[in-house]
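To: structure subgroup
Subject: Chain for Friday's discussion

All,

I'm putting the inputs and outputs inline so they're searchable in the archive.
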Amino acid sequence: MNLSERPDAVAVLAAWHFAEWSHLYPEQLLQDFAAELESCVGAQPVPTTLIALVGEIPVGSISVLPRDMEIEEPWGPWLANFYVLPEYRSIGVGRQLIEALLEHCAAHAIPNLYLFTPETRAYYERLGWQTIRSCEYYGDTVDIMCRPL
């Protein structure tokens, strides 16, 4: 489901994302994470956030953003905000979110999608992503990856 249909979920998603990734964005506050998600509410193809629900309860999220890391290369757009509650991992929720986002991007003629990850390179490689390079980013070694659509 598109976050535009459930804007009430912004606060929950922002709290997840802040808890998980604030160390990669040390200059950002919880309110900044919420503002980024609020920018995804609307009809534009980028930025957009999709959410996974069990009943009416959000259990995961994924976004496509114009930019997700500050680097010199003008790459974009980026898969970002990919998070699934721990109790819903390993049952296909994450894969469904990724597939839905890839379909969204392909439907809007986005030729390539990028991401960076500090620890799940092998997961994305199994889904067809290719590593472009590894680099240091705010104290973590991350892999920058691309997937042609």
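Points worth raising on Friday:
The helical segments are 10-21, 30-38, 93-107, 121-126.
The mean pLDDT is 94.

D.
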